[in-house]
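Quick one: Baeyer-Villiger monooxygenase from Gordonia insulae, C-alpha cells please.
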Amino acid sequence: MTQTLEPTSSEHARRADPQLRAEAWLADFEAALSARDITRVTGLFATDSFWRDLVSFTWNLKTVEGREQIADMLDARLDDTDPHGFATSEPATADGEVVSAFIEFETATGRGVGHLRLRPDESTGEDVGWTLLTTLQELKGHEEPNGASRVLGAVHGSDPDRRSWAEKREDEEAALGRTVEPYVLVIGGGQGGIALGARLRQLGVPSIVVDRHDRPGDQWRKRYKSLCLHDPVWYDHLPYLPFPPNWPVFAPKDKIGDWLEFYTKVMEVPYWSKTTCLSADYDERTEQWTVEIDRDGERMTLHPTQLVLATGMSGKANVPTFPGQDVFAGEQHHSSRHPGPDGYAGKKVVVIGANNSAHDICKALVENGIDTTMVQRSSTHIVRSDSLMEIGLGALYSEQAVESGMTTKKADLTFASLPYRIMHEFQIPLYDQIRERDKDFYDRLEAAGFDLDFGDDDSGLFMKYLRRGSGYYIDVGACELVADGTIKLAHGDVDRLTENSVVLADGTELEADVVVYATGYGSMNGWAADLMGQDVADRVGKVWGLGSDTTKDPGPWEGEQRNMWKPTQQPGLWFHGGNLHQSRHYSLYLALQLKARFEGLPTPVYGLQDVHHLS
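--- reply ---
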C-alpha cells in the first residue's frame, strides 16, 4: 500500500469553498472555547491577529492584538461569558485567499453578531483567524419589544388602567425628574443624545435627554445657512427609523433639524429643551450624581446613576486668544456662531482656518460677493465629495451597495471589523487611487499656494477623523474658488489684531471688518471640566483619538477611541457622539452597557482604559 501527502478531492473541495472553511474554523473555535482550552483557542489565530470586542466579552470596547493578548482576555472573561452557538449568518465569501463571514453567537447574558476573516497560515496552509469582531446585540430576558414582540398599543379586553396612550405618556413625563429619578441623564440633545435616548427608551431605562436649545434639531438650524451634511444619506441613518428613499444625498441643515425633531417625537424620547446643566457632583458612597439644572427658568436637582456627555465632537468651541482682540473694531465670532453671508455685503471678512467650516463659510461669502480671505495655518487634507463617495464609501454606503444587498447593519459591521491598528493599510491604496484620479484638481490647488496633505502616512480622511477629528475638508465646490483666487488665501499664524486688520506672523496685514475663527473644537472632556471640575476631567483624560503617535494623536497606542461609548476612569460618566454613523452604531453598545447596569447584571470591565493624556 502506498501513502500520499496530496490532499484528497474532498479536501480540495473544502479548501475551495469559503463557507466550508468558515464553518470548520468556527466549529474548532467553539470546541476549544467550550473546553476552556485557551492555548488551543489562540492556536487558531494568526500571530498577527486582532479580536475586536464590543461589549459581548469584555463589557468594554476593546481590541486585543495577537495571541498573548487574546489569551489574557479569555483568561479573564471566558468562564463568565460562556460563549456558544457560533455559526455563519449567511454564506461566507472569499477575496483571494481571505475568507470573510458574518457570524452570530450567544453568551451567558446575551446574543451577538460579528464578522470573521480567515487566511491561510504561511507555514501550514491551514486557515487561521486574522480579524474577529464580536458585538453584543441584546440582553437575554431584556430584549427590545420589536418585531413579533412589539407592544399591542390598543387596550383589548378588560383593563383596570383605562388611560389612553397619550395620557400614560403625559403622566410619565410629569413624573420623570420629579417623583421618578432618571437612571440615565444624557447631556446634549443633538443626533448623539437623541439616538441614545431612543435606544434607552426601547430598552425601558428611565432616562432624560436635556439640551439648552429651544427645540430638538436647533443645533443644526442655528448654524450658517449654507451648511449641509458632507456624508451621504446611506451613511447617516438613525436607529430604528432610516431616512426615506427620497431623502437628499447630502441633507441641508434645516432638513436634518426637522428630522431630529420629528424623530424625537415619534420615538418618544424623553427630551427636555431649554435646559442648561449648571453643575454635576458624584457621590462615591451612593454611586449617584447630583446634577443642578435650569429648565426654562426653573431650578431643579436630579440624581441620576449614570451621566452621559453627548455634547458632540463639534460642541466645545476652540476660540483662540490673540493680542488685539479687545481693540478690533469689527465683528469677531467662532464658526459655530457664524450666521451666514447675509449682512456682510461690502465688508472684508478674514476666516482663520482652512478645514471644513472654513471652506463652507468662505464659499457662501464669496458667492454673495463678499471680499473673503482664508488664513491657512497648517496643511489640510482635501478629498472631493464624488471621489470619496465612489472610492471611499461606495462599497458599503451607496445606492449601488444597497442594490447589491448591502444593509446598513452589514455595512456597519464590516466597517467595525477592520482593526484600527491596520485600518490605514486598507485606506492608503484608496487615497492613492483618489490622488491619481484627481491629479489635475490637486495640482491646481497647490499652484494657488494651498498646502495639502493626505495624513501623516497618506491614509486620508477617515484616519485623520479617527485620530484627531480635524484637519480635512470634503470638497463640495469651495476648492475651485480657492484655486482660481476667488477665495483669497493667506498663510501663517496670527500674530495680533489691530483696530481694522489681522496681522500674521510674517508681518502680512489683512484688512478686516469681520474675523471668523474657524478654529475647530476642543476635547470633549472640556465639558466635564466645566460641569464637574478639572479634577474629574483629568481623571477621565483626553477624549477621542487612538494613540497612533501621529499629529494631534499622541501615543501610546490605545486601539480604540479614547473614552468614547465605554466605561471611563470616572464611575458613572460616559461620552457619546461623533458623526451620524457613529451616533447610530455605537449608541447600541452604550445603551446595552447602561441597561445591564440598570438591571443589576454583573458587568466586569476588561481592559479599562488608562489615562495617558489630560486633554
